[in-house]
Amino acid sequence: MQATMAMPDLVVQALALALRYLKQFKLERILSLGASFRPLASKNEMALSANTLQQLEVLRNNVDASGNGSLLWLMDHTHTSFGARLLKHWVTHPLCDRNMIAARLEAVSEIAESLGSSDGLRLEGTFPGSGKGGGSAGAVSRGWIVEGGSQGLLASVLTFLGKMADVERGITRIFHRTATTAEFVTVIHSLIIAAKQLEQLDCVDEDQIVSHDPYQRHQERVRSHLLRRLIAAASSSVVSEHATRLLSALNKDAAAQGDKQNLFICADRFPEVDKCRAAVKAAVQKLDSLLPAYRKQLKLPNLEYLSVSGITHLIEVSMS
User: Residues 143, 172, 44, 226: is their CA dihedral positive or negative?
Assistant: First the structure.
């Protein structure tokens, strides 16, 4: 709050208007994230104007304004939704720092090499710039074999992760409290599976390898420093253990059915849930006890409560 109030008056006024606008969609919580505030001019990324993106045909061509033939169309060999969104951000926000460029290039090159795309034999149904998982990388993600390439442990792990749910979008929906119970369980379960898969990769630096451990010496290592750092963060025991605790407190069957009353299975950890569950049960019983009186008053002996768009215990009566 102090950092916000220290901003120029016009910025604070603009922030207040943005907050009012976001409240209409219940998205105002995004302003509580420190990452939401950053300088317009960055030392690490270029800020390309809309005119620059158009003139260079980065996202759309200048013939029919479609994506075909654009830079993104040519480069897009992603095979997940969050990968496509990340690539779009990279293309529209190119790096300025030489070390960061080298680190990203090293990481992408290692992934491409592990997937066999460096040998680049095109298969039927794949072509550059498909934007839908085309090219060799997309072929591997669909379980096809890329001739001339070797699919090692890194490729196997990435192939498996490429078939997972859109975790990035799911986490965003959870943060904004718009996710369903089924989506929540799916995202948490995906985080646990991803951590277990990434734990198979050797991200230990050379100087930390134990010389007398033959398994560690022969295990396929991740060379890229950036990849090692990202894998270590995603496979962190803190993340997996916290996700496991969250999942252990939920009834998966109830989550799949959207049954929020029976969603939590740990009464000791969530006493408030038990109190609310008892209050809801008492309210339902009271409403059910009023039904005979409503039938008599409305002269509708077969009257039953209706549910519309998740709203229960509604009564339908004739307008006349």
Answer: negative
Q: How far apart are CA 246 and CA 195, in angstroms?
A: 15
Q: Nearest 5 degrees, angle CA 69-CA 74-CA 78? A: 135
Q: Where does residue 235 fall: left (phi above 0), alpha (psi -120 to 50 degrees), or beta otherwise?
A: alpha
Q: Do 223 and 110 contact (CB within 8 A), yes or no?
A: yes
Residue ranges of the chain with pLDDT lower than 50?
118-150, 209, 211-212, 215-218
Cα–Cα distance between 129 and 137 in angstroms, integer? 12
Distance between CA atoms of 121 and 118, rounded to whole angstroms?
Answer: 9
CA distance 159 to 115: 9
The reply to whether the predicted model has a pTM over 0.90 is no
3-state DSSP of the chain: CHHHHCCCHHHHHHHHHHHHHHHCCCCHHHHHCHHHCCCCCCCCECCCCHHHHHHCCCCCCCCCCCCCCCHHHHHCCCCCHHHHHHHHHHHHCCECCHHHHHHHHHHHHHHHHHHCCCCCCCCCCCCCCCCCCCHHHHHHHCCCCCCCCCCCHHHHHHHHHCCCCCHHHHHHHHHCCCCCHHHHHHHHHHHHHHHHHHCCCECCCHHHCCCCCHHHHHCCECCCHHHHHHHHHHCCHHHHHHHHHHHHCECHHHHHHCCCCCCECCCCCCHHHHHHHHHHHHHHHHHHHHHHHHHHHHCCCCCCCEEECCEEEECCCCCC
- Tokens representing 289? 């006890």
Taking only the tens place, the pLDDT of each residue in 4-28 is 777 788 888 888 898 899 899 888 8
